[in-house]
Amino acid sequence: MQVFQHPLLQDHGMRCWIKRDDLLHMEAWPGDQAFCGNKWRKLKYNLLEARAHGYTALLTFGGAYSNHIAATASAGKLFGFKTIGIIRGEKTQPLNPTLTFAQNCGMELQFWTREQYRRKEEPEILAQLQQQYPPAYLLPEGGTNKLALPGCAELGEEILAQEEVDYICLSCGTGGTLAGLVQGLAGRSFALGFSALKGDFHRAVVRDLLAPATWTNWDIHTDYHFGGYAKTPTVLLDFLVKMKTYDLPLEPIYTAKMLWGVLDLVQQGFFPRDSRICVVHTGGMQGWKKD
Asked: DSSP alpha helices (H): ranges in the chain?
């Protein structure tokens, strides 16, 4: 873990570490910014399940800039699975960098209208897909399902094996990583999610994923979405640049919003003085064009 020495934290007598999960990847696939971080953790046990049951393909869903689409394509190439991506929205040429990467990994891309895409979880639609791709293992959008939790649970175990912290903070997209983290903490420390999307739907998702367990050592802040998913106002981009002075590369869709939220809460006095905080860099750098 990387020590994060920000003046605001020091003024409030706090210690902070960054869990650099963006650097987590397969040794055989160095430098891959798609199949890393929380995407690596979410896919780990799903891939083992697919292999154990003889599936030869992975089929999943996502938007045109989806980190999960890129990660699934990369994992398929690495482990020998055919991959199919159902993409929300009309096809536009040229393909953006995320979809170009996925296609270069061998992923077959299908573009569905937003109306079609909204029906993707209906049993009839899923049955049609499985008939069209009988050897395919279905992964939900974002990779969040019950098998995603054990890999994310290992995140909490790793953090506490390195440092005893009071709070572990991370960004939330679908809620799967937070649910797995809470599962792994098993009541130790407090997990704090920061939603990258508008709305307050994450709490119900996390509760459902954790059921029947009823852990209470977690919460989600919903005030740091900066206008909604993938909205990147200038103030957030300026923050991104400032964080480079701390040797901390971020992207504005998830991690920058989360870290902004953590520092804002510090300034508000949310965390007790002398708190020990771990901030998780969940990855996602593949979707962000760097200087």
From this structure: 7-11, 37-52, 67-79, 97-104, 114-118, 123-132, 148-162, 176-185, 202-210, 234-243, 255-268
Nearest to 76 by CA among 58, 52, 97: 58
List per-residue pLDDT tens for the chain, 291 residues long.
Answer: 899 999 999 999 999 999 998 887 655 444 556 677 788 889 999 999 999 999 999 999 998 888 889 889 989 998 999 999 999 988 888 988 889 989 999 999 999 999 999 999 899 999 999 889 988 999 999 888 999 999 999 999 999 999 999 999 999 888 889 999 999 999 999 999 999 888 888 889 899 999 999 999 999 999 999 888 778 889 988 998 888 888 888 888 889 999 999 999 999 999 999 999 999 998 766 665 543
Q: Are residues 196 and 234 in the same domain?
A: yes
Residue environment code for 81-120, b if the CB has 16+ CB neighbours within 10 A, otherwise e: bbbbbbbbeeeeeebeebbebbeebebebebbeeeebeee
Q: What domain range is 45 assigned to?
A: 37-143
Count up the domains in the chain and report the number.
Answer: 2
Map residue 150 onto helix, strand or coil.
helix
- In-domain check, residue 123: yes
Rounded to whole angstroms, the Cα distance separating 193 from 218 reads 8
66 part of the active site: yes
Of 66, 171, 195, 275, which is the active-site residue?
Answer: 66
- 69 and 136 both lie in a single domain: yes
Say which CATH number the domain at 222 has. 3.40.50.1100
